[in-house]
Design a protein that fits this description.
By secondary structure, the chain is α+β, with helices and mostly antiparallel strands. It has helices spanning about 15-20, 25-35, 55-65, 85-90, 95-115, and strands spanning about 40, 45-50, 50, 70-75, 80-85. The strands form two sheets. It has a three-stranded antiparallel β-sheet with strand order 1-5-4. The N and C termini lie far apart (about 50 Å). About 15% of the residues are buried.
């Protein structure tokens, strides 16, 4: 099994964060992880935004989040437990993730309001 790559905090870039969060599914996964008090497995995200996401696609999303430095993943048997690295990233780029997550939440609320009528 290949080792998991977690970039050092000084190797994380704003461009990398913005790129990885430009995908709506990855943004939703990260928002959920950032709001969680505990580690979450990939299987917690199979059903997202009213559609089922294949496990192989989820693996790619988590790999990209991990390589961008937003998520820390640890293997526990057959499970992969994921946590956000919000505190570390906040120290490097104060306010960045908060602003992105606030904008993401506003966008989700706007979409929900449009769908509701």
């Amino acid at each position: 099994m290949r080792p998991l790559v977690h970039p050092a905090i000084e190797d994380i870039t704003v461009e990398g964060i913005l790129h990885v969060l430009s995908d709506p599914v990855r943004a939703a996964i990260f928002a959920s992880l950032a709001a969680s008090d505990s580690a979450r497995t990939c299987s917690n995200f199979i059903q997202m935004q009213d559609k089922e996401i294949p496990k192989s696609t989820l693996s790619q999303h988590f790999r990209m989040l991990r390589e961008a430095g937003l998520v820390r993943s640890e293997r526990h048997g057959v499970e992969m437990r994921n946590t956000s690295r919000c505190q570390e990233v906040e120290q490097r780029f104060p306010g960045l993730l908060g602003a992105i997550m606030q904008a993401h939440a506003a966008q989700c609320a706007e979409r929900a309001a449009k769908e509701a009528g």
